[in-house]
Amino acid sequence: MFRSLADLRPGDEVDVTRQDGEVLAFSVVGSQRIGADADAGSDGLFDTGGPPRLTLIMCAGEWSASQRGTSSGSW
After folding, report:
1. C-beta separation of 14 from 41 below 8 A
2. Are 52 and 14 in contact, with CB atoms under 8 Å apart?
3. 38 contact partners, CB below 8 Å, separation of at least 6
4. Which of 46, 63, 49 is nearest to 2 (CA)?
């Protein structure tokens, strides 16, 4: 699934199957790129209040095995 995260667009659905077999459906509302050195907590990314939501996080850029990271320095 994470391989195709970059292809998701607002309105797309992401289904998550819980361990008990229940399927939870989430709709994509947007995406954003955050610098690796940014304070992700300050923009509400990890807020626990409000309705249930799913936040998917992946690294951007090309993977560099020698640097053990991505070339873009973004999340």
Report:
1. no
2. no
3. 75
4. 63
Closest residue by Cα to residue 75 from 49, 46, 51: 46
The pLDDT tens digits of the residues spanning 39-52 come to 766 667 777 888 88
The pTM of this model reads: 0.63
State the pLDDT confidence band at 71, using cuts at 50, 70 and 90. Answer: low
Question: Nearest-CA neighbor of 30 among 60, 5, 3?
Answer: 5
Distance CA 13, CA 28 (A): 6
75, 33 Cβ separation under 8 angstroms: yes
